[in-house]
Task: structure prediction
Amino acid sequence: MDRARLTRLLKDFKQGRIDAAGVIERLRSLPYEDLGFASVDHHRAIRQGFPEVIFCEGKTPAQTVAIARGLLKSGVPLLATRATPEVARALATLDRRAVYHELARTVVVRTGRPRPRGHVLIVSAGTADLPVAEEARVTAETMGSRVAVLYDVGVAGLHRLLGRHDRLLKARVLVVVAGMDGVLPSVVGGLVERPVIAVPTSRGYGASFGGLAALLTMLNSCAAGVGVVNIDNGFGAGCLAHKINVLGSE
Amino acid sequence: MDRARLTRLLKDFKQGRIDAAGVIERLRSLPYEDLGFASVDHHRAIRQGFPEVIFCEGKTPAQTVAIARGLLKSGVPLLATRATPEVARALATLDRRAVYHELARTVVVRTGRPRPRGHVLIVSAGTADLPVAEEARVTAETMGSRVAVLYDVGVAGLHRLLGRHDRLLKARVLVVVAGMDGVLPSVVGGLVERPVIAVPTSRGYGASFGGLAALLTMLNSCAAGVGVVNIDNGFGAGCLAHKINVLGSE
Amino acid sequence: MDRARLTRLLKDFKQGRIDAAGVIERLRSLPYEDLGFASVDHHRAIRQGFPEVIFCEGKTPAQTVAIARGLLKSGVPLLATRATPEVARALATLDRRAVYHELARTVVVRTGRPRPRGHVLIVSAGTADLPVAEEARVTAETMGSRVAVLYDVGVAGLHRLLGRHDRLLKARVLVVVAGMDGVLPSVVGGLVERPVIAVPTSRGYGASFGGLAALLTMLNSCAAGVGVVNIDNGFGAGCLAHKINVLGSE
Amino acid sequence: MDRARLTRLLKDFKQGRIDAAGVIERLRSLPYEDLGFASVDHHRAIRQGFPEVIFCEGKTPAQTVAIARGLLKSGVPLLATRATPEVARALATLDRRAVYHELARTVVVRTGRPRPRGHVLIVSAGTADLPVAEEARVTAETMGSRVAVLYDVGVAGLHRLLGRHDRLLKARVLVVVAGMDGVLPSVVGGLVERPVIAVPTSRGYGASFGGLAALLTMLNSCAAGVGVVNIDNGFGAGCLAHKINVLGSE
Amino acid sequence: MDRARLTRLLKDFKQGRIDAAGVIERLRSLPYEDLGFASVDHHRAIRQGFPEVIFCEGKTPAQTVAIARGLLKSGVPLLATRATPEVARALATLDRRAVYHELARTVVVRTGRPRPRGHVLIVSAGTADLPVAEEARVTAETMGSRVAVLYDVGVAGLHRLLGRHDRLLKARVLVVVAGMDGVLPSVVGGLVERPVIAVPTSRGYGASFGGLAALLTMLNSCAAGVGVVNIDNGFGAGCLAHKINVLGSE
Amino acid sequence: MDRARLTRLLKDFKQGRIDAAGVIERLRSLPYEDLGFASVDHHRAIRQGFPEVIFCEGKTPAQTVAIARGLLKSGVPLLATRATPEVARALATLDRRAVYHELARTVVVRTGRPRPRGHVLIVSAGTADLPVAEEARVTAETMGSRVAVLYDVGVAGLHRLLGRHDRLLKARVLVVVAGMDGVLPSVVGGLVERPVIAVPTSRGYGASFGGLAALLTMLNSCAAGVGVVNIDNGFGAGCLAHKINVLGSE
Amino acid sequence: MDRARLTRLLKDFKQGRIDAAGVIERLRSLPYEDLGFASVDHHRAIRQGFPEVIFCEGKTPAQTVAIARGLLKSGVPLLATRATPEVARALATLDRRAVYHELARTVVVRTGRPRPRGHVLIVSAGTADLPVAEEARVTAETMGSRVAVLYDVGVAGLHRLLGRHDRLLKARVLVVVAGMDGVLPSVVGGLVERPVIAVPTSRGYGASFGGLAALLTMLNSCAAGVGVVNIDNGFGAGCLAHKINVLGSE
Amino acid sequence: MDRARLTRLLKDFKQGRIDAAGVIERLRSLPYEDLGFASVDHHRAIRQGFPEVIFCEGKTPAQTVAIARGLLKSGVPLLATRATPEVARALATLDRRAVYHELARTVVVRTGRPRPRGHVLIVSAGTADLPVAEEARVTAETMGSRVAVLYDVGVAGLHRLLGRHDRLLKARVLVVVAGMDGVLPSVVGGLVERPVIAVPTSRGYGASFGGLAALLTMLNSCAAGVGVVNIDNGFGAGCLAHKINVLGSE
Result:
């Protein structure tokens, strides 16, 4: 029930075609979502610059393209994660502004200039963690945050991390990506005062159990103020980092 | 090596009692922490109002009291979590300002008036989740955040939650505490745009496996922008919420 | 916002004290639950005979009594599960009609005569499964179903089960409770055409892992048409059985 | 021992060719299944419209075709689940009425007109859950139930679900399919009074552990009256839903 | 339906009070167990010397005594496992022949002289494994096997085991009990040609996970011909060993 | 040190070329295996008809052929399990008597006529369990046991199993193979008095967790006298069954 | 078969009372352990200063005392781990030199002066890890190593660790003890070149799963050259550290 | 900040261009790693003969080649593990001294003659464990240790191991590699006094759970003095063995 129909209902009431009890009855069964949908949707657009993100895994290219077409038609920016090259090509056909970040497995169509915002720092341990770190980076950037990166600073060579202590301190929020033993967020969390988002990756073998070891390490982190997202969930980390970063700019 | 000793070293160098190579050698083996400790410590005090939190579990009352005595001597506020009544009594003897939050199992000594800050909302599902929710509340408050609570709004009675939608929207950051199926953060995360910190609790039985079920639910949350902390870790959630909340006040 | 306030709003609109846009704005932020609560609540009472069940575990006796007092005041029947003798005594003080089913760890206050309804059969394997089986029985009975039981018919003595095949066939829905290897629901499910609700129990030792073995057995049951509830969740099984049983009486 | 041989035995007895003790001896060693098989089989046909379902996974196309040929010969309907396109083609050669539901990976041959029956509602969260939801739909329909669907109503956009509250209330039994965090059944279970069958799917990544997260969520659901089936078991859910739905039509 | 009723039915048929179709109908619903029960029960007594073993865990002393009284009345021997001293005292009151094996937590009443049978060897690794080893010993002995033991021959002192190689070779079947790393059955299985029954115990700490480590070791044993029972299941091992041992005496 | 060298040593001693202390010293450092190897090897050949079984998984065809060539040279029978068709072809080139059991993935070269022995019964639940059941069958037969099979008697159609009760009773030892819920061994174990070897298979999906569910079911079996082997370990079950069967023939 | 009996056998052979074949036959069945036992035992005493350590858990005080009495009689030092105060008192009665290390839960009787050896460093993270760290310390010291400790240097305050970098570098082998996230060994392993033995502790709560999280962290450590022992296994770490330390002194 | 810049700073101070406070301020923000990096790096080269090992898994051939080129340029030896043949070919193009150990999946470029060092013994159980054993061998050798191997000595044929007892005793440190039940390290650990490094492999099937069974066996080993590395981590074991071996040569 949109505004027009609601106005009509009130007009009918004023003109006596329906009484108060009738109006209440109609309102009672009012489809919540019709009222709420636009509003929520509106909020979404305001706060993040785009209303929906396409998670491509488990969708056919055709399904992905159909959803993307609908989103692009309404003029909102597009963010498609876990996109294979095949999906990227399909989306490129749809809109030639589409940019494929191959390492991040992400397709982006930006429809406006992101407002300069605060500063998210993505820290990662190893080369094999890069796809997840890059997914976080592209996500936060597409949503409107400025992002810096600090890659290949694993704990095995602790000096590499300690030497960039100043860069750690400058960020408003940090996303720390690590596989294997997943100790990097604990160490970074002990060096900074800002919120740290820890992202375990499935990198590793044997008793890493597909990222479980890193996940448990991060959940048990002795450093206070660390929030954890799902294994390999670069998108979620980037999104949460952006939401926190935005707070600092209000 | 504190400032005084460093100044003396430089003086010795200027007066020729030690040459450049000797100074470099001394600096090279300079205990990092002596230099760094005060600085980090200072940072800690500035940002959170107290330099260290005592996790009482696994410590004897005597050990806890000894640590607390040291902290109180230096004039900083005190936060002791997982405190049994016995520990609380011991700390009360130490400092009569000590307040024991029994449900939160937390002892607090506040040495100053917290500056009014932003607004953290603690949301919880069931009566049995209250100790964890309260630990989060006391933690964030002691660190200097204003905190509101919204308890007993489990998904089984969804209307109770939807009816307080406005309260959800007003908070700058939300801590959502739930045991059993742990679905509350997913639902709340779908209703708000702000960062959500999810806290699984060990409440439940059978296939809840001591909170594992709730933990996995939260890590897999379809709502973007949810960060998860360890099972029953009300302290960590309160601390992270405060850190995020502070960003909005800078 | 209840009916009175809504009527007043419409009156204000009719009399021109507020325009259509104002009404829409007010309705937009209309607390959903105030409208919905009574209705949902009403539904609850109609369909199950009582609006809320108290799960006593993790609540203090005082908390339990407080909730029970509220429920009894509104004249609805009371069902309190996982009640210790101590809680039972406290509830008995509150209302002398309170009956404590010790084996089922359940307190019941029935405020009316349950309408005769269909027939739920509770089947269980061993003596140690009885508390769970009894919780299911008391729950379904209190909600208004007729219940029959068939206890101690484990698969180790298959003839005991096969000899009561006729009793299995007469039930409209079956709750099958088993610990250890949890095979009973698979066997029963192969003998009847009716819906079977399988309840694993934590009975067992070693590789039963607190009921996990039985749970997995039941989830993988080769017999089609078996729904599983949580380990030891007699209440959930009784409630679901009642809901299904009710369908046959409509 | 079929009816003919049994009649002959009784005739022999009446005519004195065998005495009572001899008859009893023969009956004692009576192959149970020969007696029971037809009866059970007969029951099966009556209650579900077909005596056996072929689970194709782990069978060669040749094995599947052989079993299907036997079933079709006896004039019963055919339901083959987890059928690859290759198997579907083989079955199509066998009987040209065979319909392949590609998304549901199911082949159906219906030999009669299903009697109009009650109403099962299949609810699912995401695009990637559709194969499981469709398997449930085809199963319940083939067994004789009317089925409605409500797809893509995940909790991340709660308004989509709340806006169809009326459709949820109309169903006699609901099958709720969800992967990732698996929270949808808890939310739906809090909105309806009817039996809810929860189906976790293996959709997800990382800490979803192949559907384990969703499974645990559902088993721990705070909503009473939820029965759970195995991960990805659309067939089992459809079958159980049909069995429950049938009760309402008796 | 016992013999008498069956005879009556046949008589009615012969005298024309019921026709063949009526008899078939009655036979069709013939309670299987009435026919089968005695026979199976009889088999039990013949093959093992006693019809039922009481697993005391999860039963009250009163329940245990009631079951024991019934068994003793029928003159069969009694085996009650996992018996606490309290239960043992209660059973001793019931029958003064009752012997309590404290280490094995088992009460035995033997009503006859066991026939001399083959030779079971119980091998165990550590002092803490003795209760399980002893449960196996008492079980096999009570059932009628001769039993020898070889205790405290853990792999850490391999020479102790190798030095008794001849004793290993003399047994007809071996029960090997081990906790912690559970390697003993693999080593013994490599030294003998006879069937080996491996019993993991819950002895250990940390990553023994309550016996899971030992269980997995045994299931993966590189020695062929090793069968495994549940963690701490001395009874099951003793029973299986006896069944195998009996074969060699037939 | 073989017999020849030992004889020479003793001769040297007798002739005074070495004294007693020297002999003892030589014996002390005597390589245990040289003495033991032949003996154990000899035992192996006597008891099982062949000294070693080749587990092909994880070996290259070349490695497998090399081991097989060595075994065949010494005139012993050959049993190669988990053999791919490629390996089977390679072994066929080596010895034209080699028979490939495709379903059992096993290559056999029998060098003598197996002595008629007792009777092992292989029972299995579903079509997809056949490879494991057949591996058990080929193994026990190759080792010298007579084997009967009873396939496709899953618990979902219990009558099929009960109807063959007599066949179950005739076997000296039973191997029961089942995937999914793994309940078949529990049911069979309740029907027979003989030793039962339970083999879980990895057949299944979702919460079967690669056979873990069936494994746990079997370990927790309420039927006493069930020994369990590793998931899919048809070889181990066949080998253990043969060892038990042999006892009955001694 | 000891030297005396062997000499007699050889004498019999020389004097013709037994022939070569007879001697070989006797030697063939020679109890391995009788030959090997003394030698191995002797080795033990030489290399570690005591032949056996008593793990008290799961033993009664009486059993522990009996074993200790035997060891003390032979004049070797005594090490009893996991000793309760009750056990400690019992051992003190046995030998008044017995020292009870309460925090380490260990009783030691040293019978000689340990030779000065290399230097083991025990590093630990938190107060609650001390019992395990102390068990390692007492073990290595009792076995004869010099031991230094560096406690309370968790990663949350990284400067405390970095400030003692020189102390880390001086040790010949390091034992690093940590619970919760277990990151300390990874960090230490990145700072030193020496062997690091990592000991996870069961300290923690929630997703630490009794030390599993710390264990997995350590097994996946990105720092090369880290060996891990069981959760809480201070004894094993101390013993391995001593064995490595000894190498450096040879 | 290198030595040159530091000298310049001190010179400025001496000449009054900067005061003590200024120097302290500069030192305070001194990049830790610039000071520490060279030193640590230098240590690395001295102690192991090469500063970094390339773990190829999860890196593209191009990334691997780029890292290798950098390392070779600085004249250090190269060790690349988990190298596919494709990567090996690429590295061979880079430097023709590159040797590919196919079984060990490792590429080595040695730039100098390794100093003769102590003796590491690699022991392994089965043919399928060889890749891991070989990775350990190549790693220890490349780092500068002498290495001996003892392959195919699984516990199923215990005599093979016992017969080489002398070879076990000669090694300074042992690496024991085993999959399946993983019992070999326990047995070896009971035979030697030296440090044992246990390496579980992922070899196996069913309840080996990808090496988890072997890992748990080793962590629970009853033999004291066993350190465990990650599943399949031949590199880590070889590296740790080398570090321990080096101690014995100092």
Summary: DSSP finds eleven helices and nine strands in chain E. Residues 133 and 234 of chain E are 6 Å apart (CA to CA).
